[in-house]
Inverse folding.
């Protein structure tokens, strides 16, 4: 069972870690959680962001596990002038 400190450390470790860009901030969510549900909880439109895990784009139907770390970046588009 462990001490309260050990339980708190395990609780903290067993979360999906999310780094948001623009503005930069870090949040955590209990996993497993789908990308769609995560974005809904963050009030983000799936079409306006990229979800990246380990340098790879993550599809909307993917499920993130407790130990996953993802980055959410806004989609930036540009064109020729």
């Amino acid at each position: 069972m462990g001490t309260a400190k050990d339980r708190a450390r395990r609780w903290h470790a067993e979360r999906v870690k999310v780094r948001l860009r623009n503005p930069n901030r870090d949040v955590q969510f209990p996993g497993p959680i789908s990308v769609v549900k995560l974005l809904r909880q963050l009030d983000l439109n799936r079409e306006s962001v990229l979800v990246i895990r380990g340098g790879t784009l993550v599809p909307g139907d993917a499920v993130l596990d407790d130990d996953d770390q993802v980055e959410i970046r806004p989609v930036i588009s540009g064109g020729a002038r």
